[in-house]
Amino acid sequence: MRVVIVEDDALLREGLVLLLDTSGIEVAAAFDHTDDFLAFVRADRPDAVITDVRLPPTHTDEGLRAAVQARQLHPGLPVLVLSAHVETRYAAELLADGKGAVGYLLKERVGKVATFLDSLHRVVEGGTAMDPEVVAQLLAHRRDPLDALTAREREVLGLMAEGYNNATIAELLVVSDGTVLKHIRNIFAKLGLPEDNGHRRVLAVLAYLRS
User: In 32-98, where do the E strands start and end?
Assistant: First the structure.
């Protein structure tokens, strides 16, 4: 796996490089701003990008915009965004193309090495990895069409948003795989997602984030 890092905090950037290196993951390049990063991805497609949301010069949303642009250059390019704060609209914008392979974690999760690496691998495999705190805030503020979901269905959808597969959701909720599948079918039906759509899981998460 070849990963590119975009992070202006030198300590965190070098820490990520060391963490990935010691985990057997190649760091193809590490940048502190978006210009060199975008020049790199124009010439080479990495396996994943890890980027901060707020980067120079304005420290607003440069990292997010660069990530979106990189996915335009390489559709489906896996992107794992790191942020110091919960900014839910950024998660929704990353998912807007419906292709998955995106993650949004608070920077404090980087210190939990196993959780961070698991999230990175899920994103590279085409899934989603949303920080539990992001999911919790979305759950607290989102309304219609999610009002149609039962409490258990919202719980299942929240775990889907974090990026867990059916088997893991069943384990976390202490229910059978069949029960989880039944809940997911109900979620698809209530969110109006067609049965023959191959991206239904991503669309369900997108509805969760943008409703």
Answer: 48-52, 79-83
Nearest to 46 by CA among 19, 12, 80: 80
Distance in angstroms (rounded) separating the CA atoms of residues 150 and 112: 32
What contacts 24+ positions apart, CB below 8 Å, involve 182-186? 183/152, 183/153, 183/156, 184/156, 184/160, 186/149, 186/150, 186/153
Q: Three-state DSSP class for 173?
A: helix
What pLDDT digit, counting tens, does each position of 141-165 carry?
655 677 888 999 989 988 888 888 8
Q: Judge contact between 135 and 160, C-beta under 8 A.
A: no
For the stretch 27-40, pLDDT in tens is 999 999 999 999 99
CA distance 19 to 32: 17
